[in-house]
Amino acid sequence: MSAPLAPLGLYMHWPYCARICPYCDFNVYRARGRDGDALTHAIIADMKRWRDITGARALTSLHFGGGTPSLMPAGDIARIIDEAEQLWGFDANAEIGLEANPNEAARFADIAAAGVERLSLGVQALDDASLKRLGRDHDAAQGLAAFESARALFKRASFDLIYAREGQTPGGWDAELAQALARAPDHMSLYQLTIEPGTAFARQAERGDLIAPADEDTARMYEIAQTLTGEAGLEAYEISNHARSKAHQSRHNALYWLGADWIGVGPGAHARIGAHARGGRVGYEAAARPDAYVTGAVQGAGHKEERLSALAEAQERILMGLRIDQGLDREQLRALTGLDLNIEAARAHAQQGRLELTDSRARLTAEGRLFADRVGFDLAPG
Which residues have a Cβ under 8 Å from the Cβ of 176 and sit 6 or more positions away? Predict the structure, then answer.
């Protein structure tokens, strides 16, 4: 008897932005002069090819990411949702989500009417100087007004902020987060700003034109985030994500953290298929440049494909599984990869108070979450 299939989600990457934020290292391009209709056509053609790969499996989620998918015409969003319904169908509790910028609030009603029920709103900061430094096109007042609009129009709305910004202090972050929590959001994504190679911020840091907060201040800001969200009734179900209840948690992102299956369409999109069987996990990557993706999708060309080794899959599952509050399922890890944690490193981190370790599970403690990446790399076999 074969193992049950893992949940299946669909990620659609819209790579175009009105402007490129200096901290962004995603596969993004300026929207000016781009043929969005050709890209939508190519994405739908790609979805049809993916249906041949996956077979008949209902989707648990469809997520529009980017880039700035809120720049898409609402009619194109509806076309993609309708195509997904025809090709796979959605399960009873499926989530259809989209990432948006506050300065596109005038589009929200049409986006909701197209079938999107969850909006992740990139407010990012609540002071105008920080927003300008982050390269954003909105001010703090627009961000707050857009959140109220999103909450009125969508079944679920996430209030997203970036902390550990240049010049930010723990006291300033405390006041800013308190201001956001006063709006009583049901979901918040609170991301630590990291200086990624190849970004404008990385070049500025190399020149000494950007000074990030000290590590101890960044750690303090993380602790403030955990304290204030917890007091407001928002559970930290993942390192950067907080929800008022399970119903408000992101179903789509859970696919990544739990190592389930997802399809990726759009330029540079990644996919993972075969999570349900040992030795069956395959990774896919689409052409990164929009013109190359459009040409390939229309001609029926597949994505770059690679069967993951047991070691690569184990490392990926450990790094992602440790991010969630329930921790990593070691029994599943062993069943699917034949590998386990680096047990010596795991015991060392447990002794240091960073890890709760049993034979069936590994879970980061509150202190361990401050060192999540380091612990994850240490625990991965290699």
Answer: 125, 126, 127, 161
CA 117/CA 97 separation, integer angstroms: 6
Task: Give 8's strand partners.
Answer: 261
* Residue 276: pLDDT band with limits 50, 70, 90: low
Whether 1 has a pLDDT exceeding 50, the answer reads: no
The three-class DSSP label of residue 131 is: helix
Of the two residues 299 and 357, the one the predictor is more confident about is 357
- Cis peptide, bond prior to residue 67, ω within 30 of zero: yes
How remote is the C-alpha of 151 from its chain's centroid?
20
Q: Which residue has the higher pLDDT, 206 or 302?
A: 206
| Contact criterion met (CB below 8 Å) for 328 and 359 | no
Residues 328 and 317: their CA atoms lie apart, in Å, by 8
CB 356, CB 366: distance < 8 Å: no
Inter-axis angle of helices 310-321 and 372-379, nearest 10: 150
- The arrangement of strands across the sheet holding 361-364 comes to 328-329, 361-364, 355-357
Any alpha helices (H) in 128-192, and if so which ranges?
128-133, 140-153, 170-181
Contacts of range 148-152, beta carbons closer than 8 Å, 24 or more positions apart: 148/183, 149/105, 149/108, 150/100, 150/105, 150/108, 150/119, 150/121, 151/185
Q: Give residues with Cβ within 8 angstroms of 203, minimum separation 6.
A: none
| CA terminus-to-terminus distance, the chain | 32
Q: Is the pLDDT of residue 63 over 60?
A: yes
Beta-carbon contacts of 63 under 8 Å, excluding residues fewer than 6 positions away, are 9, 10, 11, 12, 95, 96, 97, 98, 252
Identify which has the larger pLDDT, 246 or 4.
246
Q: How far apart are CA 321 and CA 243, in angstroms?
A: 18
Least confident among 54-68, 134-148, 263-277, 310-324: 263-277
What are the tens digits of pLDDT across the range 100-139? 999 999 999 999 999 999 999 999 999 999 999 999 999 9
SS3 141: helix
pLDDT at 240: 97
Residue where the block lists tokens 């010049």: 167
